Amino acid sequence: MKKYILTLLISMVPILELRGGIPFGVGMGVPWKQAVLICMIGNMIPVPFVFFFARKILEWGADKPVIGKFFTWCLEKGHHGGEKLKEKAGRGMFWALLLFVGIPLPGTGAWTGTLAASLLDLDFKKSIVAVMLGVCLAAIIITVLTLLGFGAFTAVTK
Hints:
By secondary structure, the chain is an all-alpha fold.
């Protein structure tokens, strides 16, 4: 049970998300189908909270002594990412957000995509659907890479 809970928790952590959760879960012996499902759920749990509260918390903390620099950095990163996404996407913002979340590169993912959607005042329902589909795409990519990676690793070590 511990490995399932850890897999879920890792997939909820910003930056790691399911990109870290799926390889961790599979590496710990969680069957890959279960690891994918657990990580997709875990990756989506924070999304509504990020959309509705992260912006307010970051704006509140931006001028505080200890946390101000970090909160300002988060706001600037989210705003910059959102503007860049908006500039490239034009009217295809839904697809841009989906791909931004779904292509597993550093600095992308459900947390950053949702924060960008919030900072850009995008529609909540459309944003959630785009992020959810992006999480599905990322899960497919990471699962394939994980299974290929572990398959190659076990073939080499035999």
